[in-house]
Every structure is written in structure tokens, then in C-alpha cells.
Amino acid sequence: PTPPIIKYSSQALQLLVILITGAAFSGMSATIRDLIGERDVFLREKAVGLRSGAYLFSKATILALITTVQTALMMGIALALNKGPTDAVILDGWPGLELAFCCWAVAFVSGLLGLAVSAMVSSSEQVMPVLVVSIMAQLVLSGGIIPISGRAVFEQLAWFMPSRWGYAMAASTLEMLAILPNRDDALWKHGAAQWLTNYGLLSAIGLACMVACYIALARRGRR
Q1: How would you write the chain as a 3-class SS string?
Q2: Cys bridge to 202: 45, 75, 137, 165, which one at CB 3.0-4.6 A?
Q3: Model pLDDT, residue 219
């Protein structure tokens, strides 16, 4: 029989992979068809004075609300069926809320990535292949299933994946290095400095996606 320690360690790892990947999928799938589906409407509104920044801000606001509802439902079910973390890094006394925030951040940034893709593609048929490839890449490069730290090329590619930093935030909250002593990933360190660093880099990806989306919308509006 499987020793209880190994069993629960594997369960924590697998559940976190599901939560983070699920958050990435829910966020990106909510937006990746959005702008391409409204392109004709946007161009008409742009011709009468609609600003690209205002349009993008409204989409980001709606995305934040959608991901909040999705994360609340997902984390509510997960914490109802499984034992949650016992110690938070930032939100002292609220470890479950901190874990939920990690998932929300991944969903929101992945949604911004979806907006950027939707602004850049030329047809709706191009959306699904990009979505599938992106989610598969985030699953593999999150660092949960396959150790990424210290592996050339893979570690560098993972820097551009929202799931890599979101998973590291959640692993830090869960003290994953204590649960899995055989794994050695510096991003998983249970400490405020590392957690905030992970969050900062995840936010940087989100900001880059916003900028890319804005540029694509502005160029589209001038055509």
C-alpha cells in the first residue's frame, strides 16, 4: 500500500495543478473570442470617438468580475472537499483566501492574455488552436507536474507563463517544499518576499498583455 505521507503529498501536488490550470483555462476561455467577435462593432464605435484605452479598461473590469465569480465557485468546491492550507504568507489568518487569490490572479492574467490574442488574430478560426496550445504549455510549464527549476530552456520558457508564477504563489502559501521535500524550487519558498516577487512577475505578464492588447486595438482602429 502507498504510505500515507506520499499519498497526501501527491494529492496536494495534483490538486494544485488542477486548480491553477483550471483557473488559467477559465480566464483565457472567457476572453479569447471576445474582441475578435466584436471587431466590427469596435471599428464602428472607434470611428465615432471610442478610445481604445476605455474599451480595454471596460473589458478588463468585466474580466475581473467574471474571474471573481469563477474562482469563488471553484475554490468553494475545492475547500469543501479537501483540507485547506493552515498558514498564510501575506493574509495572516486567512490561508484559504490567500490560496483563492492566487487562483484569481492566474485567471485574471490568463484572461488578459486571451484579450491580447483576441486583438491580434485575424479570424475566429485561429482562436481555438492558440487556446489549446497556451493551456497545454501552462500545464506543462507550471512546475507542478514536471520539475522546471534548473532546466535550461524549459525554465526560461516558463517565465512567460502565468501559471508558473501563480503556481509558485500557491505553492508558497501551501508550504509545498515541506510537503514535498524531494522537490527543490526556490520560487516555492514559504516567505513574504518570495510570494510578493512571484506576484510581481505575474502582474508584469498581465501588464505586458494589456500593453500588447492596447497597441493591437489602436493599430486596428487606424486601419
Answers
A1: CCCHHHHHHHHHHHHHHHHHHHHHHHHHHHHCCHHHHCHHHHHHHHHCCCCHHHHHHHHHHHHHHHHHHHHHHHHHHHHHHCCCCCCCCCCCCCHHHHHHHHHHHHHHHHHHHHHHHHHHCCCHHHHHHHHHHHHHHHHHHCCCCCCCCCCCCHHHHHCCCHHHHHHHHHHHHHCHHHHCCCCCCHHHCCCHHHHHHHHHHHHHHHHHHHHHHHHHHHHHHHC
A2: 165
A3: 84
Tens-digit pLDDT profile for residues 50-64: 888 899 999 999 999
